[in-house]
UniProtKB/TrEMBL annotation:
Pfam families: DUF7342. It comes from Natrarchaeobius halalkaliphilus. Residues 1-20 have a biased composition (Basic and acidic residues). InterPro entries: DUF7342 (IPR055766), WH_DNA-bd_sf (IPR036390). This is ArsR family transcriptional regulator. Residues 1-22 are annotated as: Disordered.
Amino acid sequence: MRGKRSEAIEIGDEAKHTDDWTDEMPGVDRVISVALTIEQPRTADWIAEQAAVSPTTARSHLERLVDLHILSAVEQRGAKTYYPDAAYQRFKEVSQLIEEHTRNEIETIAVTAKEDIEELRETYDVESPDELRKLATAEDTSSTEAREYFKKASEWDSHLHTVSIAEEALERYEKFSDHYQPSVDSAV
């Protein structure tokens, strides 16, 4: 295939990508970007390396994000680790749903997720994802069935989360949507 450029990233390209990232984005933004996308608690040193900043810089920004309740911190095996704050993440999901969808669309999202949950209940004759996981580990369950049960239990968890986020978005829709206008006190 002469003349076609390979889609794979070459060793030199990775360094260029890092240079572009550090040139185009301030250190604090890189720290935030890395910290909000981690899936498990990480040390400031690890986040610093990923964000291409010094550990001292990362620690400073991370502590500020903890103070703002955007991140949480915990001591693990003698090292302080950071991870996205659950309340902040939830608020962000609710806000994003309101920003990207109309009230009717959010209602449809909630109903569709509830229908999916009802279908799982009926299909597997259980009342919760945990009951489905118990079926997966039952002695007479084959490995193929177990794999399916675990996968469906995970889907069920996801549907429950969707319903929960949609319900909260509907409760807060009027206040957080673009057309909300706070009342102005005329005495001010």
